[in-house]
């Protein structure tokens, strides 16, 4: 029995309960039928005895010299017509005037007569010469209320039992119907329970719950279970940490809209669609999300979804650092290519015996390159950002873009993570390069400045000469999956990472159309964020076409 499925245990339990209930109801109905039969027999015998006692003929006969001769034929006829087992008319001293057996006439009546002698009718169950019987005893009185005789009418218990047994088919019919209906309902419920529990027993379900709960809370990935409405049914500790949720507790499902999830993850949970390694960016994390519908083995409609979440924030941070190194590498490659071309030019001038022009060309090239590097290093006191801007200047030069860099003072990070600044500036410049590449002017501008009392924040502005943004793009530009490039299917991870880094530093970011797209970032900074303002700023020009 321990290995029975929960559905079978439920069915057997229900069947035993229905059987016990049906037996109890049947017994109650049987007792009720028995009581009703005896009550009906008692009322009927009382009516017969009362009719005899009130009959003037009976009063005259009991006062005649030979009462049995007059009363026995009359009593016998009534007994046969009414189906009464006996009608005994007797004297007040119990002497019988009538009886079913004529041999008993003149004998003593067996039964209680004291109450009838007192003038009150009486009904009892008593054993007489015909066996146990239900009888009524009524006094025969004169006009002055003197009791002159007694009338007893009754039926034997066997006769009453026959009448009672006549009602048993109805009782059994009711019991059989109740048992059949209960069995059918129990069977239907057990089948439904079997489908719901996959045919597992109580111990199997308990063991499965313990194992699954242990797995849920031991895996390193976040796991979220949702119902068809997208409400959170259950999630593990890792999911709570990654999504900034309160610890999961048994109870009613929690609406996804009321727990502070990011819009993209909330939309995914509500959709119930299948997702494979989707990137979702929250305010402080980069998450890789997979989602599958939870479909029972029977193949019916899904019960909800199972969503797994992996934290790729550190990987993305390493990717940003690698991208920064790649940018520097590209810058060095571009500079190497440019210097190789210029070196070939100088060598060719020397071979043509034009040494003066070669020296002048080399001197001017050295001054321009050194001036750009010196001005960037002097204006920005952060090696990561300095290297980034030098590399971006070279990259813009190679792509034929003009990059204008304007720094109002000496930038210090003031406790900011340089990697976040590299993420913000690098991704905004990459986005601007792509937008400006197709324009006629082919120019990109970068401004870094301070504003507010005591240089309360650092401002970063990146503009481009591209086509700008549509109203729809302005509302969704920082959402994962959006891009300012307008390419169908482009997933704009870069701008989503920019928004994340800005929020992590406690700043704000906005985008407007100013000829092209203009991104403005405000980051809180200390009073020494920018010092020694230089109105002239810094301007790095690429060698590409200006349009």
Question: What would you say this structure looks like, in words?
Answer:
There is one protein chain. The chain is α+β, with helices and mostly antiparallel strands and 547 residues long. The protein is 48% helix and 20% strand. It has 15 helices and 16 strands. A 5-stranded antiparallel beta sheet has the order 6-5-9-8-7, with helices on both faces. Strands 10-12-13-15-14 form a 5-stranded mixed beta sheet, with helices on one face. It is rod-shaped. The relative contact order is 0.07. The C terminus is likely disordered.
Which features does this protein show?
five-stranded mixed β-sheet; disordered C terminus; alpha+beta; single chain; 547 residues; 15 helices; 20% strand; rod-shaped
Strand order of the largest sheet: 6-5-9-8-7
Helix-and-strand structural type: alpha+beta
Q: Give me the Rg, rounded.
A: 54 Å
Low-pLDDT stretches: 481-491, 527-547
Q: How many DSSP helices?
A: 15
The gross shape turns out to be rod-shaped
Short overview:
The chain is an alpha+beta fold and 547 residues long.
């Amino acid at each position: 029995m321990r290995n029975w499925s929960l559905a079978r245990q439920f069915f057997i339990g229900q069947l035993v309960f229905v059987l016990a209930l049906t037996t109890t109801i049947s017994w109650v109905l049987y007792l009720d039928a028995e009581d009703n039969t005896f009550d009906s027999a008692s009322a009927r015998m009382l009516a017969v005895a009362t009719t005899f006692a009130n009959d003037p003929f009976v009063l005259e006969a009991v006062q005649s010299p030979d009462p049995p001769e007059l009363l026995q034929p009359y009593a016998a006829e009534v007994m046969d017509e009414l189906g009464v087992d006996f009608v005994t008319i007797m004297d007040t001293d119990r002497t019988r005037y009538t009886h079913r057996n004529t041999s008993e006439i003149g004998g003593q009546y067996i039964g209680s007569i004291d109450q009838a002698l007192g003038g009150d009718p009486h009904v009892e169950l008593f054993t007489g010469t015909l066996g146990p019987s239900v009888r009524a005893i009524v006094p025969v009185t004169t006009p002055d209320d003197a009791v002159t005789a007694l009338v007893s009418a009754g039926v034997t218990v066997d006769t009453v039992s026959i009448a009672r047994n006549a009602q048993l088919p109805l009782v059994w019919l009711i019991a059989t119907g109740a048992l059949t209906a209960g069995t059918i309902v129990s069977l239907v419920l057990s089948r439904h329970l079997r489908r719901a529990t996959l045919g597992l027993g109580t111990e199997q379900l308990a063991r499965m719950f313990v194992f699954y709960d242990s797995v849920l809370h031991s895996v390193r990935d976040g796991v979220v279970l949702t119902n068809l409405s997208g409400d959170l049914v259950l999630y593990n500790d890792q999911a709570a940490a990654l999504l900034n949720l309160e610890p999961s507790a048994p109870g009613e499902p929690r609406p996804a809209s009321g727990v502070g999830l990011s819009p993209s993850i909330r939309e995914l949970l509500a959709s119930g669609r299948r997702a494979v390694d989707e990137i979702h960016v929250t305010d402080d994390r980069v998450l890789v999300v997979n989602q599958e519908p939870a479909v029972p083995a029977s193949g019916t409609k899904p019960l909800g979804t199972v969503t797994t979440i992996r934290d790729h924030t550190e990987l993305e941070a390493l990717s940003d650092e690698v991208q920064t190194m790649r940018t520097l590498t590209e810058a060095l490659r571009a500079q190497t290519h440019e210097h190789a071309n210029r070196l070939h030019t100088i060598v060719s001038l020397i071979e043509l015996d034009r040494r003066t022009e070669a020296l002048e060309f080399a001197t001017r090239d050295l001054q321009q390159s050194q001036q750009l590097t010196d001005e960037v290093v002097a204006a920005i006191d952060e090696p990561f950002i300095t290297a980034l801007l030098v590399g971006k200047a070279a990259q813009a030069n190679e792509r034929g873009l003009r990059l204008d860099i304007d720094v109002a003072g000496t930038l210090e990070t003031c406790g900011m993570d340089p990697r976040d600044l590299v993420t913000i500036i690098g991704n905004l410049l990459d986005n601007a390069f792509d937008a400006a590449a197709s324009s006629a002017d082919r120019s990109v501008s970068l401004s870094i400045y301070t504003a507010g009392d005591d240089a309360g924040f650092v401002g970063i502005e990146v503009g481009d000469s591209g086509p700008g943004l549509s109203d729809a793009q302005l509302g969704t530009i920082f959402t994962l999956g959006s891009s300012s490039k307008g390419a169908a299917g482009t997933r704009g991870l870069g701008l989503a990472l920019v928004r994340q880094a800005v929020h992590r530093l406690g700043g704000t970011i906005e985008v407007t159309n100013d000829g092209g797209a203009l991104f403005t970032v405000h980051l809180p900074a200390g009073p020494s964020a920018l010092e020694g303002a230089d109105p002239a700023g810094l301007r790095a020009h690429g060698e590409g076409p200006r349009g």
